[in-house]
């Protein structure tokens, strides 16, 4: 039977990180939301560029 | 956002709205980890009554008169897209009435309590609402006794029971 790595420690760490984020002051969290929004714009713009670089398929 | 809140407080002072409370994603972020959201949902209690959205027309008149721009369903107040929602049932009315007062960068504002946010999400019932309910439960951010009381008062107990399996961690 194939053996897979145990990632329960990573999951626990993630949960701890989420709790620490939830405990931040509201102002800090809102600042992070604005940063997320900026990041989303950046990611979206990246996707648009990569789409435009896709080779076009030749129509027959 | 501080300036947006100042404008909303001014609206209460000027009698445009009786009271307001922040709900939606930003309300949830007060209790949870931050996540991406587009707008600020503000539930308002207005003095006029009616079954159409005309009850919030004075809000738009007031803000547009002060140079703020309405775009789509939002009105941009100090660069923040704000969606005004009149209280539309007994649950949202209670949520605004019982909201807690907090300080945001030394500006007083009102945020719905977690139990009301969860009840409203349950009532709305979109997949993203269910996801957020599970976040509230996972974080232990709701008082279950208080939540049960809210659900009972507003006839949402059955819907909770029917969907509880979705929220269980």
How many separate helices of chain A? 2
| H/E series of chain B | HEHEHEEEHEEHHHH
Shape of chain B: globular
CATH architecture of the largest domain in chain B: 2-Layer Sandwich
Strand order of the largest sheet of chain B: 1-2-5-4-3
Task: Determine the fraction of residues in helical runs of chain A and give it as a percent range.
Answer: over 70%
Alpha-carbon distance between the two ends of chain B = 33 Å
Low-pLDDT regions of chain A: none
- Main sheet record of chain A: none
Largest sheet descriptor of chain B: 5 strands, mixed
CATH class of the largest domain in chain B: Alpha Beta
Written description of the protein model:
The complex is a heterodimer of chains A (60) and B (169). By secondary structure, chain A is an all-alpha fold. Chain A has helices spanning 8-22, 26-52. Chain A has a domain at 12-45. The radius of gyration of chain A is 20 Å and the shape is flat. Chain B is of the alpha+beta class and 169 residues long. Chain B folds into two domains: 2-112, Beta Polymerase, domain 2, CATH 3.30.460; 115-167, no CATH class. In chain B, a hairpin with a 2-residue loop joins strand 3 (69-71) and strand 4 (74-77). The longest helix of chain B is centred in the N-terminal third of the chain and has 12 residues, at 2-13. The N and C termini of chain B lie far apart (33 Å). The model of chain B has no long low-confidence stretch (mean pLDDT 92). Classes of the chains: A mainly alpha (60), B alpha+beta (169). The interface between A and B is medium-sized, with 15 and 18 residues.
Task: Describe the secondary structure blueprint for this structure.
The complex is a heterodimer of chains A (60) and B (169).
Chain A: H1 8-22, H2 26-52
Chain B: H1 2-13, E1 19-22, H2 24-31, E2 40-45, H3 57-65, E3 69-71, E4 74-77, E5 80-86, H4 90-97, E6 100-104, E7 107-111, H5 114-124, H6 127-138, H7 144-153, H8 157-167
Parallel strand pairs in B: 2-5
Antiparallel strand pairs in B: 1-2, 3-4, 4-5, 6-7
Helix pairs in contact in B: 4-5, 5-6, 5-7
